[in-house]
Amino acid sequence: MALDVCEIFYGIQGESTYQGMPCVFIRLSGCNLRCRWCDTGYAYDAGLTMSISEIMEKAGQFGCPIVEVTGGEPLLQKETPALVDAFLNIGLLVLLETNGSQDIAKVDSRCIRIVDVKCPSSGMEEHNDYSNLSRMTEKDELKFVIASREDYEFARKRVRLLDFDGCRMNAIHFSPVFGELDPKTLAEWILQDRLEVRLHLQMHKFIWGKDARGV
Ligand SMILES: C[S@@+](CC[C@H](N)C(=O)[O-])C[C@H]1O[C@@H](n2cnc3c(N)ncnc32)[C@H](O)[C@@H]1O
Ligand SMILES: Nc1nc2[nH]cc(C(=O)O)c2c(=O)[nH]1
Ligand code: SF4
Ligand SMILES: [Mg+2]
């Protein structure tokens, strides 16, 4: 029962509807995608092998009720569902950030699954598994990371196709690629179209800068 871990740290949740909350991050190593603008290339390589109990002990040191499992791509590792269960079973609130290419049903639906839909300029659009949209529950969150008008129109089209059964209207995030698309431009597009989506800015980058690690 071991996982390949890139880093474990305590920080301010910079993304999702939990933005602003203190959170323990478990960043797993390895990713099957290579998004053009990825800010976490350091997680592609193998990290440190840790057992579930070692991870829980390290995470537990912070005494924090919220944990996020991210990566890299966390759903590539066989033991990730068991890690999520272990945190759920001790009563923690668990978030999982995933790239949308893997079946989210692998993890317990008590976990809040934050699912990216990759837009064209990521170069990874062909990897989207759209079946995930019907696997999502009301607790889960959807995210489009947007670098251009083309990406925005792609995301807008997808949102208009959604029925909102499995997705809360306030948990559809439109997030600009940091340093590439001006948040003001994205805000104006959303307002012009009267889109019921959330403008999502990566809070930690405004606090610590775009290249800081472990925050
Ligand atoms: C590093 S990924 C790890 C989880 C998973 N691999 C994924 O892509 O969702 C975490 C989140 O950061 C977003 N992200 C990565 N680079 C970014 C950038 N330069 N600007 C904005 N968001 C970015 C990803 O789209 C994803 O939503
Ligand atoms: N502070 C902070 N919040 C985050 N939320 C999701 C992150 C991620 O890389 O998945 C992230 C991250 O890297 N840092
Ligand atoms: S899927 Fe996530 S970790 Fe992998 S390259 Fe894309 S943004 Fe980076
Ligand atoms: Mg990050």
Automatic annotation (TrEMBL):
Substrate binds at residues 12-14, 27, 70. The keyword Lipid metabolism does not apply. S-adenosyl-L-methionine binds at residues 37-39, 72. Pathway: Purine metabolism; 7-cyano-7-deazaguanine biosynthesis. Homodimer. Catalyzes the complex heterocyclic radical-mediated conversion of 6-carboxy-5,6,7,8-tetrahydropterin (CPH4) to 7-carboxy-7-deazaguanine (CDG), a step common to the biosynthetic pathways of all 7-deazapurine-containing compounds. It catalyses: 6-carboxy-5,6,7,8-tetrahydropterin + H(+) = 7-carboxy-7-carbaguanine + NH4(+). It comes from Desulfatibacillum aliphaticivorans. PROSITE patterns: RADICAL_SAM. The lineage of its organism: Bacteria, Pseudomonadati, Thermodesulfobacteriota, Desulfobacteria, Desulfobacterales. [4Fe-4S] cluster binds at residues 31, 35, 38. The gene is queE. This is 7-carboxy-7-deazaguanine synthase. Belongs to the radical SAM superfamily. 7-carboxy-7-deazaguanine synthase family. Binds 1 [4Fe-4S] cluster. The cluster is coordinated with 3 cysteines and an exchangeable S-adenosyl-L-methionine. HAMAP family: QueE (MF_00917). Its cofactor is Mg(2+); [4Fe-4S] cluster; S-adenosyl-L-methionine. One of its GO terms (biological process) is tRNA queuosine(34) biosynthetic process.
